[in-house]
Carboxymethylenebutenolidase homolog
Amino acid sequence: MANESRPCPCDIGDRFDYGGRGQEVQVGHIKAYVCKPSASTDKAVIVIHDIFGWQLPNTRYIADMLTTNGYIAICPDFFVGQEAWKPSNDWASFNDWVKTRDAGKIDKEVDVVLKYLKDQCGAEKIGVIGFCWGGAAVQHLMLKNPHLKTGVSLYGVISRFEDKHSLLHPTFFIFGEKDNIIPLEQVTLLEQKLKQNCKVDYEVKIYPGQTHGFVHRKREDINPQDKPFIEEGRKDMINWLNKYI
C-alpha cells in the first residue's frame, strides 16, 4: 500500500505465546473470540484484527487487556472464513489477496456483531479498535456507522480512506514515527484534512522511534527500548475508550 515492490511489508513481529482468557463463539455467519469481565457491564469494544487474522494470539492478548479494564471485548473473523495472511506468503501476491478482503466492506459483519453484543451481552455503549488493516476499517466505521461511540485506529493504512475525513465519532489515531508502511507525510496530510473537515473530537499521535505494529506486535520484555512506547500506546488507547464509552 505504501511501496510498490512490497505494498504492505508487515512483519508479524513477536508472535505472543498466549492462549487467551475468552472463548470462540459463532456470531451469525462468522466466528468470533469473546472475552467478558467478571462484573457485568454495558460497555463493549469490537477489536478488528490485522492481516494476520482473528486468531493471532497478540490480538487476543489486547482483547483480554480490554476486558481487564472493564469492557466486553469481541474479535470477529472479518475475513469471514478466508485465510489470514501468512508470513511465508509471497508479498507479490498481496494486492490480489487484499482485494478479496476489503476493510471498507465489513458493514454486514459489524451489524451482526452489534446485534450480538446488544442482544446476548447486554452492551449498550460500544466502541471499536483496529490494527493496520483493522485500523483502516476503524476509520471506515467512524465515517459511517451511527451505532458506535468512538474508535481507535492503530497504524491504520491511511491511503485506504485518504479523501474521507468527516468523522461521525471521536477517533484516536496512533502511528509510529518509523513506520515504513505509513510515511509521516501521509500522517501530516491526515491531520490537515481532519482539521479542515472534522467536526468531532479527534487526536493524531506519533510515537517516537516506533515501527509498524508496535502496540500489539512487539513484546516489551524483549524490546526494552520500545517498552515505554508500547505501554504508552496501550494506555492512551484505554484512556480514549474510557473517555467516550
The chain has a mean pLDDT of 91.
